[in-house]
Amino acid sequence: MERVSIDEGRCKSCSLCVSVCPVKILTISDRLNERGFRPAECTDQAKCTSCGWCAVVCPDVAIALYREVKA
Amino acid sequence: MAEEMKVIYERPKSWANKVTHYCPGCTHGVAHRLIAELVDEMDLIDKTIAVWPVGCAVFGYEYFNFDSVEAAHGRAPAMATGIKVTNPDNFVFTYQGDGDIASIGMAEVVHAAARGWPITVIFINNGNYGMTGGQMAPTTLLGQKTTTTPMGRAPQLNGYPIRLPEMLAQLDGPAYIARVSLDSPVNIRKAKAYMRKAFNAQIRGIGFSLVECLSTCPTNWQLTPVESMERIRKEVMAYYPLGEFKVAEGVL
Amino acid sequence: MSEKVLMKGAEALAEGAIRAGCRFYFGYPITPQNETPEYMSRRLPEVGGRFVQAESEVASINMVYGAACAGVRVMTSSSSPGISLMQEGISYISGSGVPCVVMNAMRGGPGLGNVAPAQADYLQAVKGGGNGDYKRIVLAPASIQEGVDLFVDAFDLADKYRMVVMVIVDGLIGQMMEPVEFKTTVDVNALKKPDWATTGRHGRDHANIISSLMMDTATLEKWNLELQAKYAQVAATESRIEEYEMADAEYAIVAYGTMARIAKTTVRTARARGIKLGLLRPITVWPFPTKQLQKYVGQIKGALTVELAYRQLFEDVELALCGKVPLGWYGRGGGVVPGPQEILAAFEEQFGKGR
């Protein structure tokens, strides 16, 4: 399961998440969403540290974050 | 060994989960999200009545799952006063842009602050009238080009920008007055902490609270969202210092 | 239970509003109605209400708007220049479909004018004022007692139709003293709590939103059609008039409020001289009692509109009777109030000796 979950339909391609990610795993994709924006995507889920900065700057409430814990 | 996914962050329950009408990168969305997070965390959804302004946030009521009213331009603090008087136990906040609060609605916010009754104002300062196409606002910086200051804001022609929190902090009425910035994750987290204090000032019945949020308008600034955040740090904060200007006893 | 007490008009009307269930008042000082907010400021706390002195009439009406959204009985009062400042708020309240009562103690205008009695805000009250297609119900009492009684109707009508109800008086009614009886006391706790009010969800399964903003043209047109249907219903059912000495009348004076009260003396004087004069006194000036006036087409040989304004009420009389009854007009402005003899002289000048 994804650590960084981006709701592509809500993304407006503003790139703020890309600019603040400390481990540089976010990028703007080549796809178009239904509104004509190129949504942000995560290139390497395993590197995500769950710092939350992407969700904190996202103006469109498009990012959710999860982390594995041992059951 | 089995693994489960723990939620680090998900959208707030008081967020109506609609796609907003805001331009890409506009920090209205950030301020909205912080309000929704605080309403959730402070368990206010059943008590909240929001008063929305005229300006870009005019449709704000579309995006939340709590009660809302839509005010006339600048009159949100008066309307909030009427609501609070009838329902003192409710949580009442206004959400206003710079033109709404510091130009046409200056009288209403000053007197709401002077009365000191516990209502909360979230003030979005993006330095221009975004909804109408980027005209000069009372907060437009000197030299800043807008559609009505094509050569840049000149004090001889256009006067000086208004620092509202510093003005209101001179009054005895307010319990909490602060300015925050929505330019970076660190400052956004600080903004939320200050907004929590503002909410608490009301919930604890201490008095009027206001938080000004330095915000971006990438479309009218003609900058990318990332460049707009940099502009806040380089130019806007130089004129509008961050911090708390009034913290009454008991505000946490 | 109720007995007659001698009270000043502006205070009696305030008490009438409180008896009608008003618990919230927001206002700003302006002559000639300052006794109303002053009375409210000491009386409302006694009945569990709140009085707020606002920073302006603009703020007053928007505080009223906020309180009206909570579904409580709320009012403001002012006088002509202050009422002008409230027009934006009245439009928003009307566009949002929430109820409130606004009282205008009309004074001489235009501009700052003076503080003497006038009826020059008639067209503003009944035809326009703020922006957009909206109507208010406008009640025009001619005595303190009637004003007190009408306040109960004002709040009931506001709640029933979710409209702004205006009560228009003038400084004469506000400043004179008369014996008054408070016949009705509304139990505010027994009033139905509206389901549309923004009072916090408190377990409600949806958020209530009150707004006059509808960007979609079809949506806004539909809302306008709903408002128009409501106004048509009000026009068809809520108009009121007093018909005084009209049974055998050959001529009629049409006047409302203070002017009608004075015209009653004119009617009595005229009848003593053998002139069969009567009085048609609209109690609601919107909806205008058009049908009640038209009833006298064929009976009366002339109708003289008398008002403290320049051909404002006359417009509505003309719309009701034009081409069917010969019309005359007599009005004074600037706060000048004509006596019964001046009205009679104007009648005789325009209609002869009425025989």
Q: Mean of residue pLDDT of chain B?
A: 97
The major beta sheet of chain B can be summarized as: 7 strands, mixed
Question: Helical stretch count of chain B?
Answer: 9
The strands making up the biggest β-sheet of chain C line up spatially as: 3-2-4-5-7-6-13
* Unreliable sequence segments of chain C: none
Return the structural class of chain C: alpha/beta
Order of helices and strands of chain B: EHEEHEHHEEEHHEHEHHE
Which strand-content bin applies to the residues of chain B? 15-25%
Report the CATH architecture of the largest domain in chain C.
Answer: 3-Layer(aba) Sandwich
CATH domain class of the largest domain in chain C: Alpha Beta
- Helix percentage range of chain C: 25-40%
- What number of domains of chain C? 2
CATH architecture of chain B: 3-Layer(aba) Sandwich
Shape of chain C: globular
CATH superfamily of the largest domain in chain C: Thiamin diphosphate (ThDP)-binding fold, Pyr/PP domains
Overview of this protein structure:
The complex is a heterotrimer of chains A (71), B (252) and C (355). By secondary structure, chain A is of the alpha+beta class. Chain A is built from two helices and four strands. In chain A, the strands form two sheets. Chain A has a two-stranded antiparallel ribbon. A two-stranded antiparallel ribbon of chain A has the order 2-3. The longest helix of chain A is centred in the N-terminal third of the chain and has 5 residues. Chain A is globular, with a radius of gyration of 12 Å. The model of chain B has no long low-confidence stretch (mean pLDDT 97). The longest helix of chain B has 19 residues. In chain C, α1 crosses α2, α1 packs parallel to α7 and α3 packs parallel to α5. Chain C folds into two domains: 214 residues, Thiamin diphosphate (ThDP)-binding fold, Pyr/PP domains (Rossmann fold, 3-Layer(aba) Sandwich), CATH 3.40.50; 111 residues, Rossmann fold, CATH 3.40.50.920. In chain C, the strands form three sheets. Chain C has a seven-stranded mixed sheet, with helices on both faces. A five-stranded mixed sheet of chain C has the order 10-12-11-14-15, sandwiched between helices. In chain C, strands 1-8 form a two-stranded antiparallel sheet. Helices cover 39% and strands 20% of the residues of chain C. By secondary structure, chain C is an alpha/beta fold. Chains in contact: A-B, B-C. Chains B and C meet through β2, β3, α2 and α4 of B and α3, α5 and β9 of C. β4 of chain A pairs antiparallel with β1 of chain B, so a sheet runs across the interface.
